[in-house]
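ENTRY TYPE: paired fold submission
RECORD: A
CONTENT: sequence, then structure tokens
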Amino acid sequence: MTARVEVQVRNLRLSDRIKQHVDERAGRLDHYLPAIEQVDVELAHHASARQVEDRNVAQITVRGKGLILRAEQRASEMLVAFDAGMDSLRKQVEKYKGRHYRGRGSGQSAADVGESIAPVDDTDRLPPPIVRRKRFRVLPMDELEAIEQMSLLGHEEFFVFYNAETSRIAVLYRRRDGSYGLLEPEIG
């Protein structure tokens, strides 16, 4: 069984060669982790990028039962960016499997791990305007799973999730001291 692959392109003509390459490589991801059901690949070309290495962007999002993994890579050639993204995603899958199939490793609690993380440097800048909007599916999970997903996805600042314990949307964020905070919005 192969994972369902959806390919979207922006500012780029999708050639048969690229489409076939993406379908073959992304469709085999469920070989590494059977829980993978869908792979969304977004290929974009930014002609105005300053660096040649930043012109082609491959963003790969993997969805499955209880997991979301994402990788984004840039390169001068589209297939190089896609292959680098797949390599990055394979590392995330191995990390995910290590946590779920072999346990937590050292047995440290999530609070202890949070204390050992260096604080994030916060500089005084004006916030930039909204330049991109994203829609995404939220999966029910508990707070510990949200911390794990935040780490797996590489989100440094925050993570939005559906809290299965409270049946509400929540925002997990990293505090300046390296610990975690949880926002639970209420309608006023």
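RECORD: B
CONTENT: sequence, then structure tokens
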Amino acid sequence: MFNWLLIFVPIAIAMEHFYPHHHLLVFLSAAVAILPLAGWMSRATENLAEQTGEGIGGLLNATFGNAAELIIAFAALRAGLHDVVKASIAGSIIGNILLVLGAAMFAGGLRHHEQTYNAAGTRSQATLLTLSAIALVLPAAYSAAVGKGIAQGLPEPAAGPGHEVVLLSVCIAVVLLVVYGLFLVYSLITHARLFVGSIAHEEGAGSAEVPWSMPKSLLILAAATAAIAWVSELLVGAIEPTAHEFGLSNVFVGVFVVAILGNAAEHASAITAAMKNHMDLSIGIAIGSSVQVALFVAPVLVLASLWVGPAPMDLVFTGGLVATVLLSVLITGQVAGDGRSDWLRGVLLLAVYLIFALAFFVVPGVPGY
């Protein structure tokens, strides 16, 4: 029923072309244009899940959903906006496991008393998130230790602290990519049964609708992803100057604005799946997307920065971002590890996300935050 909103796709493009300085108008038109595109992506993913299983369906949705963010991050790398890239990476991780998963559990819990999903597959993904948190802590700790040593009069590394941190980040990026490749083998081949949930259909629902074929679903999913990537670039280009007009910081914009809007398609897909009692698909989208950002998108950006942009990007995140990711991973493992969900658990995750947003909004100027 939102198909008529597709008219805002050409409107957003026209606004960007003819009125590039009207950032608020570009932002609003692009934000509305994403809604129907996200709906088509959600529908294509559900049809794929009908044929491939909810585990693979969630993986496909996470992959296509993160394509837009990867494209936007490459644009930021070319401009040398490493702080924005890092903030959007951290924002995507905590946004998917707190905001998306929390909203999905809350919306699904309002329609269903209690929902279940495959706990073993979810715990394995939560373990991968813990690995990603460790990968963020070590470069930041090394950088802080080197900086403290230099401040106390100790000699700095022969190649310079910046070079050492970049080398460490590149090595960690390679390790994370290898682990992600092994996880794909684990989830799709050797232990695929842990990621295939039984789709629970609502009574009387879906019987009148003929499922799409797999080629049609893949084609629509790819087209919707390409359109969202295009519109997202317009939206992200407008949101930063618009947000600054309201006094918001770059970190807040990257973590809580760019990340939310860049993953709008996944938000819609996960919530829709949860409301239809497809929790394995919803979990696969929310947590699976965070895993993919941490183990694939971030390492690829680090390696790509060796050739793209004015300088290489490291994995040294600020203390506030590292603490936020660590705490998000901790509570997600506790809430989602037993294979059941209800609306209260969704409220808990949303409350943590709101607390983080308030903290970054109130103290945006604290050094290292």
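NOTES ON RECORD B: The chain has twelve helices and two strands. Residues 37 and 227 are 7 Å apart (CA to CA).
STATUS: closed
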